[in-house]
Design goal:
The chain has twelve helices and seven strands. It is α/β, with parallel strands linked by helices. A seven-stranded mixed beta sheet has the order 3-2-1-4-6-5-7. The longest helix is centred in the last third of the chain and has 31 residues.
């Protein structure tokens, strides 16, 4: 992937003294065609979106722009707060997704919903300075050969603000791993702030996986023809309102996204996650069996029942948190029915496992080990297909 060097320009300061007022403007260039769109995925950012729109209004004076917010049904009322703003500012658009979650997929939906020739992606938490949008757009306008411009924390003039050493080390590690996959000299492949040409994005869109929380990684690895890119400096700011979304599950999503780009075409990513969790569940099953027999003094039938339902419960909740995070079940009722349907599906899968293995072994088509593995494979495919349809496909 070819990188076009830019001379870093200073990132302008934050507009902390900007007067807070509702924007009723259609932009100073309302008579001109739309120049750029800013796609902003949100989840529980009700306290930040109003200030972000005000900062966009200041930063993009003289440009014809729109902001496309894609909200994953935030329980804090983010979507309603945005609709209130949109009633007086038609540059603000709101897409509220029901029953779906995920940052990358939210970005894709928002980017597909605009006809702007330039499309930016940024966070809603005020850690990305909207003034940098002018630098991103300017780079693309000056060089028609560029496909993409990234706001980087790790080029000259950029910075990570008040990050603690542990978070900085994790970011550097993730960036090094991502560069190995990208095979490109991108200093900040984990950046969530960039701008791409609309037509180029739409060419790539059918090939995107939508998995994980870094759409930039998805874009760079999906391009059959290497993207020409440049970088501008970004001073990363401290979150003022709300909580960070960087948790252990997000870190897991990063690894899942890397797997998908490298091996997903051979073994589907969701099935691979389902199978790995199933394998871990075997360990849980054996541990509970030992607990029932050795500690609780249960008969084998009782201990086996405890181990079976314990492992099923473990698998259900881990799959709900990881494998089906974008369709995650919430609420006591949904979780109870989901768990029950999962147990029913897996019970039938267990019967299929034993039946297939016994048939192959008794008919002498295979040795015991191969027969058992065939039974496990059939059960895994059965459990995955039916739980995808009836457990996580119902809501």
């Amino acid at each position: 992937m070819k990188k076009t060097p830019l001379v870093p320009s200073e990132v302008e300061g934050r507009n902390s003294d900007f007067v807070k007022r509702p924007s009723t403007s259609l932009g100073t260039s309302a008579g001109r065609g739309l120049e750029l769109a800013v796609v902003i995925p949100t989840f529980n950012e009700a306290g930040n979106v109003g200030e972000l729109v005000r900062r966009l209004d200041t930063a993009l004076q003289g440009r014809s722009w729109e902001a496309v917010f894609v909200d994953d049904a935030s329980p804090d009322g983010t979507a309603q707060a945005l609709r209130d703003i949109a009633r007086t500012d038609r540059r603000v658009r709101v897409i509220e997704r029901i029953g779906r979650r995920g940052l990358s997929s939210a970005c894709i939906e928002g980017m597909m919903a605009t006809g702007a020739p330039l499309i930016a992606v940024m966070d809603a938490d005020l850690q990305h300075d909207p003034q940098v949008l002018n630098q991103l757009a300017g780079a693309l306008e000056r060089d028609p050969e560029l496909d993409l411009v990234v706001a980087s924390r790790f080029v000259a003039g950029g910075g990570t603000g008040d990050w603690e050493s542990e978070r900085l080390a994790k970011s550097h590690t993730a960036s090094r791993i991502a560069r190995l996959v990208l095979k490109a000299d991108l200093t900040d492949p984990m950046s969530g702030f960039f701008m791409i040409r609309g037509p180029r994005f739409r060419e790539l869109a059918p090939h995107l996986s939508g998995i994980g929380f870094k759409i930039l990684l998805d874009l760079m690895t999906s391009a059959r023809k290497p993207l020409r890119f440049a970088e501008v400096p970004l001073q990363f700011h401290r979150r003022e309102v709300g909580e960070s979304k960087l948790d252990h599950v997000v870190a897991m999503e990063f690894l899942v996204a890397l797997y998908d780009r490298m091996f997903g075409s051979y073994v589907p990513t969701r099935f691979a996650m389902f199978a790995v969790i199933g394998a871990v569940g075997v360990g849980v099953h054996m541990g509970l069996l030992w607990l029932g027999l050795g500690i609780l003094g249960l008969a084998f039938i009782g201990a086996q029942s405890l181990a079976t339902f314990g492992a099923m419960t473990f698998n259900f909740f881990l799959n709900n948190a990881l494998t089906y995070r974008d369709r995650r079940l919430h609420g006591a009722s949904a979780l109870a029915w989901g768990w029950l349907s999962f147990c029913l599906v897996c019970s039938v899968g267990a019967v299929a496992n034993v039946g297939v293995a016994a048939f192959l072994f008794t008919e002498r088509y295979a040795y015991a080990t191969l027969s058992a593995l065939a039974g496990i494979l059939v059960a895994a495919v059965w459990n995955y297909a039916l739980s995808s349809r009836f457990t996580w496909g119902r809501y």
